[in-house]
Write a structure and sequence with these properties.
Order of helices and strands: EEHHEEEEEEH
Largest sheet: 8 strands, antiparallel
Radius of gyration: 15 Å
Strand order of the largest sheet: 1-2-8-7-6-5-4-3
Helix content: 10-25%
Number of strands: 8
Structural class: alpha+beta
Shape: globular
């Protein structure tokens, strides 16, 4: 897993590249339109995902997630944007614990197929804006989503 960061005006980014062995199409399906399977794949971290507005498959739908980070249960309401052509999914935080410390947060996942036999990658970009300049970057949230991607990969390999 490779990590990097950059800053543009007030918007900052953290990035990670995660190697996965499962099918790029199956992994993309879970992170784009099958969020209801994430608690099955990563039950220690993600406890529930529910549709708040829209549905599971439509870009612009809003979902409510319940997860544990650093021993604390948190929630986030997010809006999903799906880019099928580029195997990219964006989740923009609308409400929740994350926004107590950050003005904005957006998770961007891009599945990068390497071969049908595995060896694929998931690029994760976390765009954020701090509420206060002294606030720390959201490394813990990047670690959380990296671990969830690894859990989904293991779930898909086992099934």
């Amino acid at each position: 897993m490779a990590l990097s960061s950059r800053t543009t005006a007030n918007l900052e980014t953290l990035e990670a590249l995660v190697a996965v062995k499962s099918s790029a199409d199956k992994l993309y399906a879970i992170i784009s339109t099958e969020h209801h399977n994430v608690p099955k794949a990563s039950s220690d971290t993600v406890h529930d995902v529910a549709v708040h507005e829209g549905d599971w498959k439509t870009s612009g739908s809003i979902k409510l997630w319940k997860y544990t980070i650093d021993g604390t249960v948190e929630t986030i309401k997010e809006k999903v944007e799906i880019d099928e052509a580029n195997k990219r999914v964006s989740l923009t935080a609308l409400e929740g614990h994350m926004l107590e410390q950050y003005r904005s947060l957006k998770f961007i996942y891009q599945v990068i197929p390497k071969s049908d036999e595995g060896g694929n990658q998931v690029k994760i970009t976390l765009e954020y804006e701090k509420l206060n300049e002294s606030d720390q970057p959201p490394h813990k949230y990047l670690r959380l989503v990296v671990n969830v991607i690894k859990d989904i990969d293991a779930y898909l390999i086992a099934s």
